[in-house]
Design a protein that fits this description.
The complex is a heterodimer of chains A (554) and B (283). Chain A is built from 18 helices and 21 strands. With 554 residues, chain A is of the alpha/beta class. The radius of gyration of chain A is 25 Å and the shape is globular. Chain A starts with a strand and ends with a helix. Chain B contains ten helices and eight strands. In chain B, helix 3 crosses helix 4. In chain B, 33% of the residues lie in helices and 16% in strands. With 283 residues, chain B is of the alpha/beta class. Classes of the chains: A alpha/beta (554), B alpha/beta (283).
Chain lengths: 554, 283
């Protein structure tokens, strides 16, 4: 069972801090939590909201069916009252103009003023929430200490107490024990994965929704001996990452679609010069500036095809926060093993959304791929059977390391020889075999005997998982889904097997053209019979998938 | 094989090209400093000058057009034991890579930037570069270049560079010395090297430069910023060569909390216990 509340208000009213503290308190009480952030691209005003869904089992998808609406402004009531359950509640300031019987009106602003700081109204409201949901005040102090500056702790503690005293408990406290889990958002999970993989150098230019990766890494840089450099533009960011990686520091860069567009030429440099690099594209709706703070899966084809010429690459789509950690480590392992660019596709829903996940562990120490210098002189691009040439760090041995964006011979010297060109293209392409052998098949949910197969990739994992469970409750043994994480090269085995037994195949994607469906058709000939597509910048919910799948299969 | 001699390779430059002299000066400068080839990383973008790393035995990163500087910056961040030299042209440095030029100066990282400035695009056969003079007729500027030439010396000074010099390919003794001083200098060091392009620049010929260049007087105080600005503005009947400006400035590594202990980044280990703590901070 899950409860679901929305905290809404204008930018600058502190809903983010309120939600951050509330989700931590929930987790401390043992709940599994999923938080989704919906922001406008502005620093003050407008309408922002955060959805917090919590319960005694993990909620995989956010939901627009609300138990509670915490309205810090009138817009929140006006825009979202129709999402509230009949027995739900609206928690708002007494001055908010609503005659809805479900409203719990509290003089939040006045009480905050009386306490001495109008900004503590969110803490009063959270105090109310804790009481309504039967949670204790015990953990508040510890969490406030983590989240707030020293001078604000006492006044906020009072605010919590006052809010708590105002109402009676309304919802049953569920028995849940997720307190040994982590709560983490997608950006931080990527950053943590990179650190666990041995990241030494991160360069980026700030761009929503990827900036959280840079800021988290920067806050840990001194302690963990890494360098985070804010580049002058995304072209510099990726060329820096390549310079650092060439020299021997594990390197990553992160951006969104617009910045990734600027990185495209250097993606090819990574390909031909065979310099490992991990690139995170936290997608947002495009083209150009698009919807800067919202979500989309519009860059799959772009990531697969970006840059002129042909070279091996890998594209991984992150499905959830746990996946974000694990797949970022894998991205480094693949990049370092094959000396290729690995593109990680995240998106705003995942990047800014937090969830309780099983506490992750550090990977076993990764073998250093650097080789010893061979007798007869070092050749950076030695022709080998698997396409992987010996790699040395410049300056650390007597082997001189030459890398080149021009076509080159084994030593790294420019060549225009037709036969060397053929040998080098073939050497690089031989790496695809190894990369393909190590692919992970997509996640499978639902019934083994299903005749309706849903297909998705990346962050729609949760909504699809929840939808399949619901659909199978309504029509048992009918639905199944495959959600891709490794998406290019496309793992085909499970797809072919499941597609063969399916009567209907429906691709569910957060874009307008069905990019995964196109890729699947190109690589396997499998045709999706129906599509559920969404491109308004808002993540599809489990319940929306259920209703749209019912529509197309009716 | 690593050695104290920096062997050179057969080039693809035009006979009579100023690049030959610059390459010879570079070899002499490196050998004169007692460096080994394994200690040196040559970085370049694209262009005729950018082929220099191909022709001298050292480590080499031959990257993208205009993008040598960011790669060089990060290489130096990753391993400060490397002597990093960006050897590339005026188009690569001031045109395609103009933004990186400004921001590399701001970082004041200890790399050397040797710009072969022939005031023309050689690799693409003779279009205007950022330093081409007004009125210069080229294939692309068919009615003559109408844009003001870029002044790299003035720009470097204005952006805060601590070592700003100008050399001439035809004065190898001075150029070798400038290169050695630049390499010894702690921080970003720029040498704009005037260089005739025998194939595509029929205006700024070897004779044209010879008539105009004049070594900077021994009286000049390289720490005098205003005097350096005055020298930087001269590019007419007289073109001053030598060190325009040289002052000590705090270097990137010394300001950086992780790098200031001078242990190369690639040798630093991160403590698994700290990683474990980080994971626990999310519980």
């Amino acid at each position: 069972m899950h409860y679901n509340v929305m905290i809404g208000g204008a930018a600058g009213q502190g809903i983010d801090t309120t939600a951050a503290i509330f989700e931590k308190l929930l987790k401390k009480e043992g709940y599994a939590v999923l938080t989704t952030r919906d922001f406008m691209s502005r620093i003050r005003g407008g309408h922002n909201f955060i959805l917090i869904r919590f319960g005694d089992s993990p909620a995989y998808s956010h939901s627009r069916v609300l138990d509670g609406l915490i309205a810090l402004d009138h817009d929140t009531v006006k825009l979202h009252v129709n999402e509230l359950k009949p027995e739900g509640f609206i928690l708002c300031d007494e001055r908010i103009n609503t005659d809805d019987e479900r409203a719990i009106k509290i003089p939040l602003e006045e009480m905050a003023k009386a306490l001495g700081n109008p900004r503590v109204s969110g803490s009063i409201a959270t105090g109310v929430l804790l009481k309504l949901f039967g949670l204790s005040l015990d953990g508040v102090k510890g969490i406030l200490k983590q989240e707030l500056k020293e001078q604000y702790i006492d006044i906020n503690l009072k605010a919590y107490d006052e809010g708590y005293a105002l109402v009676e408990n309304r919802y049953e406290k569920l028995d849940a024990d997720f307190s040994d889990h982590m709560i983490i958002n997608g950006n931080k999970a990527v950053a943590l994965g990179a650190l666990a993989a041995g990241l030494k150098f991160y360069s980026a230019y700030p761009m929503s929704p990827s900036t959280g990766i840079m800021e988290y890494l920067a806050s840990k840089a001194r302690d963990l001996n890494l360098v985070v450099e804010q580049a002058e533009d995304e072209i510099a960011a990726i060329n820096m990452a390549l310079g650092a990686s060439f020299t021997g520091a594990k390197a990553m860069t992160g951006t969104s679609g617009g910045g990734f567009s600027l990185m495209v030429e250097a993606l090819g440099l990574s390909g031909i010069a065979e310099i490992p690099v991990v690139i995170v594209n936290a997608q947002r709706p495009g083209p150009a500036t698009g919807l800067p703070t919202r979500t989309e899966q519009g860059d799959l084809r772009f990531a697969i095809h970006a840059s002129q010429g042909e070279f091996p690459r890998k594209v991984i789509a992150l499905r959830n926060q746990e996946d974000a950690y694990r797949q970022t480590i894998r991205a480094f392992m693949t990049a370092e093993k094959y000396h290729i660019p690995v593109i990680i596709l995240s998106d705003q829903y995942l990047a800014d959304g937090s969830a309780t996940i099983k506490t992750v562990s550090l990977p076993e120490e990764m073998a250093d791929a650097r080789t010893e210098i061979q007798p007869g002189g070092y050749k950076r691009y030695l022709l080998t059977e698997n396409g992987i040439s010996p790699r040395l760090n410049p300056g650390q041995t007597d082997g001189l390391v030459m890398v080149d964006s021009d076509e080159h011979d084994e030593q790294g010297l420019i060549t225009e020889s037709a036969s060397v060109r053929n040998q080098m293209v073939e050497k690089r392409m031989r790496k695809i075999q190894g990369i393909s052998d190590e692919l992970e098949e997509p996640d499978f949910f639902g019934s083994k005997n299903a005749d309706i197969l849903l297909l998705g990739w990346g962050s729609t994992w949760g909504p699809i998982k929840e939808a399949v469970e619901q659909l199978n409750r309504d029509k048992p043994d009918t639905f199944a889904a495959l959600v891709f994480g490794d998406v290019f090269p496309l793992p085909e085995k499970l797809l072919k097997e499941k597609a063969q037994q399916a009567r209907l195949i429906i691709n569910i994607e957060q874009n307008a053209t069905g990019q995964l469906a196109g890729l699947i058709r190109e690589k396997t000939g499998i045709v999706c019979t129906h599509s559920v597509l969404k491109y308004d910048g808002r993540q599809i919910t489990g319940e929306e998938i259920v209703s749209r799948v019912r529509e197309v299969t009716a | 094989m690593s050695q104290k001699e920096f062997c050179t390779r057969e080039t693809a430059w035009c006979p009579g090209c100023g690049n030959f002299s610059i390459l010879a000066c570079l070899k002499k400068a490196l050998e004169g400093l007692g460096l080994e080839s394994r200690q040196v990383l040559m970085v370049a973008g694209i262009g005729q000058a950018a082929k220099t790393p191909q022709y001298i035995c050292a480590n080499a990163f031959c990257g993208l057009h205009g993008r040598a500087l960011p790669a060089a910056v990060a290489a130096k961040i990753a391993n400060e034991k490397l002597t990093v030299i960006v050897d590339t042209g005026d188009g690569d440095s001031y045109g395609e890579g103009g933004n990186h030029f400004i921001h590399t100066i701001r970082r004041n990282i200890d790399i050397n930037h040797f710009v072969h400035d022939n005031q023309i695009y050689g690799l693409t056969k003779g279009q205007a570069s950022p330093t081409t003079e007004i009125g210069h007729v080229t294939g692309a500027q068919a009615d003559g270049n109408i844009n003001m030439p870029f002044n790299p010396m003035l720009m470097a000074l204005a952006a805060g560079a601590g070592f700003v010099a100008r050399g001439l390919a035809g004065d190898p003794i001075q150029l070798t010395e400038l290169m050695q001083k630049a390499i010894r200098y702690k921080g970003y060091a720029l040498i704009d090297i005037l260089q005739p392009c025998v194939s595509f620049n029929k205006v700024n010929t070897f004779a044209w430069y010879k008539q105009r260049v004049k070594p900077i007087s021994k009286e000049h105080d390289p720490a005098d910023f205003n005097a350096a600005i005055a020298l930087a503005r001269q590019f007419d009947d007289t073109i001053p060569t030598g060190i325009l400006y040289e002052v000590e400035k705090p270097v990137y590594h010394e300001r950086h909390p992780v790098l200031k202990d001078h242990e190369p980044l690639i040798s630093k280990k991160s403590d698994p216990k700290k990683l474990e703590q980080l994971i626990r901070s999310f519980i």
